[in-house]
Design a protein that fits this description.
Strand content: 15-25%
Order of helices and strands: EEEEEHEEHEHEEEEEHEEHHH
Helix content: 10-25%
Number of helices: 7
Shape: globular
Low-confidence stretches: none
Radius of gyration: 18 Å
Largest sheet: 6 strands, mixed
Distance between the termini: 42 Å
Length: 281
């Protein structure tokens, strides 16, 4: 199994391309559709890098795997689906997030069929020769999942590099209690399990880092080690989240990502609008 990493410095997002060198079967985890909120324009630079790599190496992209409905960047899943024919998969609890944000954006058409495949906790998705195990890791959102492929897990916003910690839990139906329990599931994996995180915010201005291990996380994660009690973590996470500002692109991102990265349909004047609901947060 091979892994290629793509980093978007605008949103600190890591996208991973995972493939079998022998069969050329591949999946992508958490791609980005580039968005400039000032000019309200999109570009495809991040997704194009993935497409170019896939085509250069003769890979067959079977799935785009979303760890959750991101609140900090718009998913590039539809770009990869259009260009490479990949299906889009996400955890089956995405319907809980759709139920919350459908009314916020006055969307009555959201439902599970927005995605090609919904994955239950413990379900294994076969992507050619790649076996992708789904591990439900709610807390950051109720629909978060971690994907396990071989000896590697892709944790999205559940678990970050040890010097940064874990994801926030103050989004609708998020839960610090749930996140603690989710991380315990990950910490039960072998210490040598490789961990690939969903974002790296480069604390202290350090160099980009995106790969750690379960053993390193258990030993030194600054917010949640193997010795941290649930009470300690929940208290810390609750107090920390209470002073955090919402993500810069939360509304632009969520309204697309609950619909598998699709942008809203153009209105009768031919213009597409992203809604910014007032006073919701």
């Amino acid at each position: 199994m091979r892994i290629e990493t793509f980093f978007d410095p605008q949103t600190y997002t890591l996208t991973y391309l995972v493939w079998d060198e022998a069969t050329k079967d591949a999946v992508v985890v958490d791609p980005v559709h580039d968005f400039d909120p000032l000019s309200v324009t999109f570009s495809t630079e991040s997704a194009d890098k993935v497409v170019d790599f896939v085509e250069k190496h003769g890979l067959t992209l079977h799935y785009v795997l979303e760890t959750h409905a991101h609140a900090d960047h718009i998913s590039g899943s539809q770009l990869l689906k259009d260009k490479l024919g990949a299906k889009v998969a996400i955890g089956d609890k995405i319907t809980l997030v759709q139920d919350v944000f459908g009314p916020v954006f006055n969307r009555k058409d959201l439902g599970p069929d927005a995605f090609d495949t919904l994955l239950a906790d413990g379900e294994t998705l076969q992507a050619g020769s790649l076996a992708v195990e789904t591990i439900a890791t709610p807390g950051h959102t109720p629909a978060c999942v971690t994907y396990k492929i071989g000896d590697a897990i892709f944790t999205g916003d559940a678990l970050f590099m040890p010097d940064f910690g874990t994801g926030r839990c103050d989004f609708p139906k998020g839960s610090a209690v749930d996140l603690y329990d989710s991380v315990q599931k990950l910490y039960a994996l072998p210490d040598e399990t490789r961990v690939f995180v969903g974002h790296d915010y480069q604390p202290g201005g350090r160099e980009l880092a995106y790969e750690t291990t379960i053993g390193a996380s258990k030993a030194s994660n600054k917010q949640l080690t193997a010795e941290t009690s649930k009470e300690q973590f929940v208290t810390f996470r609750t107090e920390r989240d209470a002073v955090l500002r919402p993500p810069r692109l939360i509304f632009q991102s969520i309204q697309a990502n609950v619909d598998a990265g699709r942008l809203p349909t153009a209105e009768e004047n031919g213009i597409t609008y992203l809604k910014l609901p007032i006073g919701v947060l």
